[in-house]
What does this fold into?
Amino acid sequence: MQNHAAKSALIETGHWISQQGWVPATGGNFSIRTDSGFVVTASGYHKGYLEPEHFLELCADGQITAGTGAPSAETALHLMLYQLSPNTECVLHTHSVAATTLSRFIRNDTLHIEGYEMQKSLRGIDSHLTPLHIAIFDNDQDIERLALRVAKHHATTPVVHGILIRGHGLYAMGHSVAETRRHIEGLEFLFACELERIKLEGTR
It folds into this structure.
């Protein structure tokens, strides 16, 4: 994908994600793999009102080649996800209430989901009986260290659809922008269902 097309795709995606309430204030960050490297959102901009000048262009090794402003502090985690999954073409990071809250409620390092038809919205899952496992990592302001923890986990349990950062949000990934958007929408629905299930069980 050319850089200008990548920016247009992320502008439209940011508008859609913002309408869902998944990137409040200046939260979240987006990236796409391009023909020359990557396009990533610059830090400090509301993702519902992105403009072409709100992006940075990176070469294949992650160095900035065009654009102004600072890259998101979490760019290193995006780059690690691309490195771990060479077929990944897009990474979208969101801050929804469901993902943020659920990631704090689950005490272990994996969210297990099973029994929902919506699981079939995710690549490789063709039955509600197929368990879905989303890894949860403790938040860390040292993004390089966090990225290494993700890489260590991936070595034994590959990251396929995304990861949760505790108290922070979701990083979704896919083989295209459209697939990543589908993964976000499916995962956010599943997170909301799990959160509602936990609340209802607590009232019994």
